[in-house]
Amino acid sequence: MPVSRRSFPAFCFMLALASGLAAPASAAEEVNIYSYRQPALIQPLFDAFTAKTGIEVRAVFADSGLVERLAQEGRNSPADILLTADVGRLVEAASRGLAQPVDSAVILADVPANLRDPENRWFGLTMRARVVYASKDRAPITAVSYEELADPKWRGKICMRPGNHPYNLALIAAMIAHKGEDFTRAWLKGVKANLAVKPSGNDRAQAKSVFAGECDLAIANTYYMGKMLTEEKEPEQKQWAGAVKIVFPASPDFGTHVNISGMMLTANAPNRESALKLMEFLASDEAQQLYANGNFEYPVNPRVAASELVRSWGAFTPDSINVAEIAEFEPAASRLVDEVQFND
Ligand code: FE
């Protein structure tokens, strides 16, 4: 068809219409994520969401600084959703006014009340327990409490990462929430006295230390056991995991401490509708199954079971406190870590 000057706009309109019909209706939609969670875990979930909805997901991944970045960018931030690997950063972001409440019956039905913000500004997506990795050879225990970790019988036998890491801060904060600050200060001093070496490294490094004979008990998150057992890039990690057994510490007062990874809709989310769809998807049975199998965590969605390997570690009674309450005590936990010079 010859395109005359006069008919050119009409021709373009027809082209646009044709291409619009050929492409998925939602091709232009997108969601932007700031993620503390790592790409290897999260990308398959984004891909599943895009395949289902046609909505593109773009993500910035970082280990630190994303809450600060959101705050600095303010209204100009392109981020719609923040994904974190702990409750503390969600609460921090919400308390700095960086979140907006989400009124979704779907999400409320999928995420238990104690694993989300009472004001619906953030939601847990996965749950992990902070447990003891006990040396199979040197500490063949079947039960332990967090309180006992301060018992002198474990003098020089315990390894853990620095006290001010978010995972340990949450554990210490849970102790404060249940037993008060004075009890927790004394407990923390006792645990410090039992450390075999100065706190350093990540959770997997603690299993390595047990494997190497440096300590008999390590404190770490459940899912690292699954990650080490399936680590093909560094197969020696399978030996580290093989040297330890998970023991779920149960406090007589509060059961086993759990933390969440979670999500938050940003205050200024430019793509709010698409972001809500992604949030509902992440809490859904389908995505929760991907989380369970991809990262050895406990799904928050009660209809979805943990993976077979995770179930093989045994059952435990999770602390039923709202994780928001734990986060409230994290500043106090941080102070105690400094006060008892836990990391020195
Ligand atoms: Fe982690």
Number of helices: 15
CATH homolog superfamily of the largest domain:
Periplasmic binding protein-like II
Number of domains: 2
- Distinct compounds present: fe (iii) ion
The chain-level mean pLDDT equals 92
Strand/helix succession: HEHEHEHHEEHHHEHHEEHHEHHH
Structural class: alpha/beta
CATH architecture of the largest domain: 3-Layer(aba) Sandwich
CATH class of the largest domain: Alpha Beta
Structural Rg: 23 Å
Percent of residues in helices comes to 40-55%
CATH domain topology of the largest domain: D-Maltodextrin-Binding Protein, domain 2
Report on this structure.
The protein is of the alpha/beta class and 344 residues long. The chain folds into 2 domains: 8-127 and 259-305, 3-Layer(aba) Sandwich (D-Maltodextrin-Binding Protein, domain 2), CATH 3.40.190.10; 128-257 and 315-339, Periplasmic binding protein-like II (D-Maltodextrin-Binding Protein, domain 2), CATH 3.40.190. 43% of the residues lie in helices and 15% in strands. The protein has 15 helices and 9 strands. Strand 1 (30-35), helix 2 (39-53) and strand 2 (56-61) form a beta-alpha-beta unit. The longest helix is centred in the first third of the chain and has 15 residues, at 8-22. The radius of gyration is 23 Å and the shape is globular. The chain starts with 7 loop residues before the first helix and ends in a 5-residue tail after the last helix. Bound molecules: fe (iii) ion. Fe (iii) ion binds at residues 85, 221.
